[in-house]
Amino acid sequence: MQSLDPRRSLAAGAMWLIIGLAAAFSIAAALWVGGIARANLSEQHIRRLSLETDQLSSDLGQALAGRLDAIRAAGHILQTAMPPERRGGLREVFSELTLAYPQFDWIAVADQHGIVLSATDAQLTGMNLESRDWFVGGSQAPWLGVIDRSPAARADSAALGDMAAPVRDETGQIVGVIAAHLSWRRAPYHPERLTDEPSPATQAYVLDRNGVVLIGPDDLRNRPWKGVPEATPVTPPNRTETISPPQFQRLPGGRRVLVSRALLNAGPDTSAGGWQVQLTEPIDRVFQRARAVTYQIFWVSMCLGAATALLGVLGTRKLTGRLQRLAASVAAVGQNESEQLEIPPGADEVARLARAFAKILSDLRAERLELQSLSNELERRVTVRTREVERLAEESRYAAIVRERLKIARDLHDTLAHSMMALLSEVRFLRRLHARDPDAVAEELLRAEDLARQGLQEARSAISQMRVNAVRDTGLGPALSREFERFVDRTGTSGDFSADAESARFGDERAETLLRMAQEALRNVERHSRATRVSVRVTTREELLELRIEDNGVGFDPHAPRPEHYGLVGLREQADLIGAELRIDSGPQLGTTISVTLRVAPAAFAA
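The structure corresponding to this sequence follows.
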């Protein structure tokens, strides 16, 4: 099935494309040619019906004209038989006319006053017909029309109409009127003798000037034609003597028919103007042959399309066979089932593509070997770098130990060194006091004991701070606040502390260093500045955190050398350790301001 899936096979995609195009073009051609054939055959059918209508109209017109000429001739014969003494000869003339023209159901002769002198129908003899249309019209010129059916008329015949002609004497004076009733028994089946395809579905009609059916089926005879036009009339070429072009009409029962009409002409001097000959065919009959031809064209087109698609599929398989073999060879090389590509002979696109694949494969193999060599070299260098990293790690651990030693040294300086210096000063003072005032030694010994106890407490506090990281637990703000409160309680100095929300939450390893720098600065204020007010502020501006400690003490020169005093040195070392900027502003009797500025990423302020 994969060979028929266009998503997995180029040949299958090309075959389905050819099949689709062949089917689409076949259907389009069938519809286009079928439409043209349908239109042409329908037009031919309409033209044929129109010609048949003209032919029927011409035949009926000639028949009427011949019968009317016979009536005229009979009128000339009867002008010698009009006197009463010769009226017995009228019946002989009537007999000859009915023998010559069987369509005459009855013949009658009236004098100039409208009195019927003689007739083949005895019921008409003696009747006064002066007011009848046929007498009025026939007394002036040949007349065609409809006279009431006589009882002698045949019930199975179609009343085509009646005719009348004046009877003149030798001087040309009208002395009477001769009339005849004409039936046309073959008219409803007239198309059977005009076409090679007899069709009982085609019906012939003769309508009078008012649209009343004179000839037609029994259920429509002597009734108005009730067809309703529903489409644009179709005018066939070279149509003559046409009242209206052929058109489709809908009958009261819902049946649709094609209607063609032509004028009925029985001669230039007749008064039967407006009579029409009509032929009708059901609409299915009109398009029957057109549909059949359309279906034939459709199936022929589909067969041709199928043959084209089959040839296209065979040609596609032939053309794509080389490409499929190349794809199979590439797949075999990709699955390590083959070492070389199968390059087909020739100079077409497939052969060029195969040679290009072979070159790419060769280059890839060469690059793989080179890459393997580079990988081996990289592994060697990684081994060397790993050893170097291990050495640097060992040195880093040693540097960490050195930094911890420096930190311990600073803590000892800040705690035990200060306490020991105070004790040393107190011991020296006791020695001098013992020599001058022995009674005051006891009081000073108590003070020395307090100093020793205070130094021990500071040592324990320093050890505790090295073991517990309060800044990591609570943040820089709370830790500095507690340290400032202890300073105020211990020294009695007034002051204020402030820290914004972001700096208060700062709590990574650099925050611990800032806390130790603040502790060192406050101890220096306590021991050296003799300040009465101290303020500590921690603020954040953009990505900069600033610790600022100010006092109103005696101040000092920050640039003057101080051997064996490590307080300021320790502050600078700790600032360098965390990448902060330390600034000391002071002068004699000007107080001291210490500011530490540190660049901090926004993520470091997270709670």
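Residues 149-160, 186-198 have pLDDT under 50 and may be disordered.
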